[in-house]
Amino acid sequence: MNGVLAALAIVAALSAVSTAVAGAPDIAAGKALFERQWVAAPSPTHDDEGLGPLYDARSCDACHTGTGPGVVAGGIGAGLLVRLGNSTGGADPVYGAQLQTKALPGIAPEAAVAIVWGIHDGRRTASLHISSLGYGALDSHSYAALRRAPSLAGAAALAAVGDAEILAGAAREHRAGMAGHAAILTDEGQTRLGRFGWKAANPDLAAQIAVALQRDIGLSSARYPAPWGECTNAQAACRELALRSEGAKIEVPDSLRDELVAYVASLPAPVAPDERAPGAAIFSHIGCGDCHAALHAPDGHDIGALTDLLLHDLGPQLDDGIAEGAAKASEWRTAPLWNLADELAAGGLLHDGRARSIAEAVRWHGGEASPARRRFEALGAPERLALERFLLRK
Questions:
Q1: Which pLDDT belongs to residue 21?
Q2: Which residue from 30, 38, 101 is spatially nearest to 67, judged by alpha carbons?
Q3: Comparing C-alpha atoms, which of 240, 246, 244 is closest to residue 219?
């Protein structure tokens, strides 16, 4: 653990020096990029070209509506996407790590996707109906699962939490007999700590934004320089079109990516929970606070996100078959709980929006969270109401 901590400290120090030398990116320009409607190349201005050839959305705010969570009822490309993968962390050999349901003229979309909502044991379920696969069947080991665009509010606060703080939380939980662990990644040849994404597969905002640009919009960056987005070797026509229309240029250079990072980092964090509220004591007593714990900024104040940023096994009911980064298929990064009201207003909770209430979200928790779920289910109506008011910041 000490070796990992030392390596992470060196990386963080080098990153800070690099940022200081580069100067402050333009937040207003980043907002314009976030809202930009990308088009296919060639375009009259060249500034907004690079879309596709395969994509799910034409802009960042198509999914992160108002920088908030994706709207669950909006469908693919309007706040939801289809993640592909297998239990060993690999992508589908033909379709990659994400299904793209839109394409430029002359290229077949990867699939048509319908989201089928149902009810099982009193809980809403989300299942996918995938049809019109444009490039043959999915690999027999591949799984497809729904993912919701998270709210971006408070991302800078999560980015600012020190690696030592997260690792200390993991050590503290292990001493208490818990199995959560930090998402230690090998990222571009360096040891990094993952903290962004539903499974903490990206170490910082720059990495998270780069992968979203590639998979969601089909835009290249220094991190993902291929001009064809996520088109695989099996999708030759897609690659040929990209080379013919766009060449090998980087569509989102680091300077523009940094403007996007600056804009997202400028978004204010949600209001912190009132630790004096009756629901706070209930939250702690039933064990939710063991994982949805307090994390502190470098100046020592609690950022109010209620997450340890660790990976926890939540059991078979939330196992979607897809391992990612350092996370097994049944493991998820502890989700911040500071934006639940907006998430409910946009359609639901959890990684795919399936849960229509806090109680329903808790009922989906298993694995390490099973004891806390049982204690929650034993609460009376007044205690549940107090807990809900605490989490919804009422």
A1: 40
A2: 30
A3: 246
Euclidean distance between CA atoms 141 and 356, whole angstroms: 31
For the segment 303-315, the average pLDDT, to the nearest whole number, is 97
SS3 of 192-216: EEECECCCCCECCHHHHHHHHHHHH
If you average pLDDT over every residue of the chain, what do you get? 92
135 vs 218: CA distance, rounded Å = 18
pLDDT confidence bin for 44, thresholds 50/70/90: low
**pLDDT-derived band of residue 33, with 50, 70 and 90 as boundaries?**
very high
- Rounded Cα distance between 237 and 241, Å, is 6
Largest CA distance in the chain: 64
Neighbours of 306 (CB within 10 A): 24
Q: How many Å apart are CA 384 and CA 91, to the nearest integer?
A: 41
Mean pLDDT confidence for 252-272: 96
Percent of the chain with pLDDT over 70: 93
Confidence grade of residue 360 (pLDDT, cut at 50, 70, 90): very high
CA distance 150 to 311: 17
Closest CA to 150 of 199, 214, 210: 199
| 8 Å CB contact between 143 and 84 | yes
Q: How far, rounded to the nearest angstrom, does the alpha carbon of residue 380 sit from its chain's CA centroid?
A: 34
- Mapped onto helix, strand or coil, the DSSP state of residue 266 is helix
| Banded model confidence at residue 205, pLDDT cuts 50, 70, 90 | very high
CA distances from 312 to 161, 201, 272, 382 (A): 19, 14, 23, 29
Strand partners, 115: 128
CA atoms within 13 A of residue 241's CA, in its CB half-sphere: 22
Helix extents (H) in the chain: 2-22, 27-35, 155-160, 163-175, 205-212, 236-246, 254-266, 278-285, 340-345, 358-363, 370-377, 381-391
Long-range contacts of 110-119 (CB under 8 A, 24+ apart): 110/54, 110/134, 110/135, 111/82, 113/76, 113/82, 115/75, 115/76, 115/80, 115/146, 117/354
Q: If DSSP codes are grouped into helix, strand and coil, which group holds residue 144?
A: strand
pTM: 0.92
| Mean pLDDT within 80-90 | 97
Neighbours of 42 (CB within 10 A): 10
**Amino acid making up residue 109:** P
Structure-token pair, residue 258: 């940094």
